Amino acid sequence: MGILDQEKVDKIKRVLKWHQRGITISDLASEMKINRNLVAKYLDMLLIAGQVEMQVIGAAKVFFLSRRVPISALLEFSSDLVIVFDSDQRILQVNEQVPLLLETGKEVLIGKTIHELENPFIRALRSGWVARGPREKGESESDVDCIIRGEECHFRAKMVPTAFEDGSDGLTFIVEDITSRKKYEERLRISETRYRGLVQSSGEAIIGNDPDGNILGWNPAAERLCRYREEEILGKPMSLLVPAGCEEDLSGILKRVHQGESIRRHEMKMMRKDGAVLDVLITISPILGENGTITGASSIARDITGEKMEQYLREHEDQYRTLVEDLNVGIYRSTGDPRGRFVWGNTALLNILGYTTISDLQNIPVIDVFSDPAARLGLLDELRKKQFVKNRILHLRKPDGTPISVSVTALAEFDENKNVVFINGIVQDITQFTNLNTGSPDRSR
């Protein structure tokens, strides 16, 4: 019988479908009410076509609809390139993705050995096969690169040992085209390199932190601003960078940022490693991960302490100059942190301390003017307790090391947390009187 009656074929399939556990030839012929031998011939032809399966159970042959899907059908569903080789390295099967990539037909590939094809893609696979070694067992994976149509392409090839029904062995290449991913990774690497370069060369402090507020990024400008080296600050909490009493302000800002808000040009206090308090203008933005989740925050901080001081001086310069420039006693204003910085001073103060310009004086910490740094701390302690000191004798030194003695009257300004922010003072040089009292020679003569 060379021609199948499609109507009978369809009926056999329906009956087999109804009998999931299988059915014998006799039962099938009885149910279809046709000759047993005819049913047997149809079943033989369907077996050859792979549309039905047969199992021997006891003395009976039981038939089922085929539960196997032809490998060629499976291959076509894959977006990867699939090439099946036999033990002689001859191509047995490829899916449609392969001829599309190579711009050739399947018939050109099927039956050829991997050494007979000189296509760059096949040569790259051949290199991977050679690198695998003849005795290597199990699956292996390698990245291969080649030039296709003038463009560099990248692939990830998985080599899977394959056993065929006749007992022979082979190897199946399942190849993923990762060219787009590689290009994206390269662009990302270049972007990250450029970003790091910009961050490192930026004149403004850039600080990165994780969702818990721990510092993860620190550029050279941040080191110059806060005086912490990168290796000693990474992993530490951001709260280390703000003075006591400002932690809640920082915590509130970070909470808003980690909820997706960007904080721009916010004025706040920061603290250097040496305890100096700075006024900064800070912009903080959330850092987003690949899936849109917030993975941290990036802060850009600019020191505006000098600007605020200058603004304050401009607002009060006329009245200060009118009142104090003609006085023979030194008048000054300084910050109230442990080391201190001179904000302003009159000409008499410069003469007493031995400096030419106010900018020269502003460039040194106040504590460096004291012969004994502990005296500066003692003055601050007394100001915290009493707010005002009168005629306190202090021993200072000029830039060339010449000792001087002064009488200081000072008034402290406090913030809402009772911290000394500024000190306004009057300085009178009493060196000559001290020398007379102690019997020391007057060095000015």
Task: Record keyword descriptors for this entry.
445 residues, alpha+beta, Arc Repressor Mutant, subunit A, Beta-Lactamase, 4 domains, 5-stranded antiparallel beta sheet, 16 helices, 17 strands, 30% strand
Description of the molecule:
By secondary structure, this protein is α+β, with helices and mostly antiparallel strands. It folds into four domains: 6-65, Arc Repressor Mutant, subunit A (Orthogonal Bundle), CATH 1.10.10; 71-181, 2-Layer Sandwich (Beta-Lactamase), CATH 3.30.450; 202-303, Beta-Lactamase (2-Layer Sandwich); 307-438, Beta-Lactamase, CATH 3.30.450. The protein contains 16 helices and 17 strands. It has helices at residues 6-18, 25-32, 36-48, 71-76, 97-102, 106-109, 120-132, 179-201, 220-226, 230-233, 247-257, 305-324, 347-353, 358-362, 373-386, 431-438, and strands at residues 52-57, 60-65, 81-86, 91-94, 140-148, 151-163, 169-177, 205-209, 215-218, 263-271, 277-288, 294-303, 330-335, 342-345, 388-397, 403-414, 420-429. It is elongated and about 135 Å long. The chain starts with 5 loop residues before the first helix and ends in a 7-residue tail after the last helix.
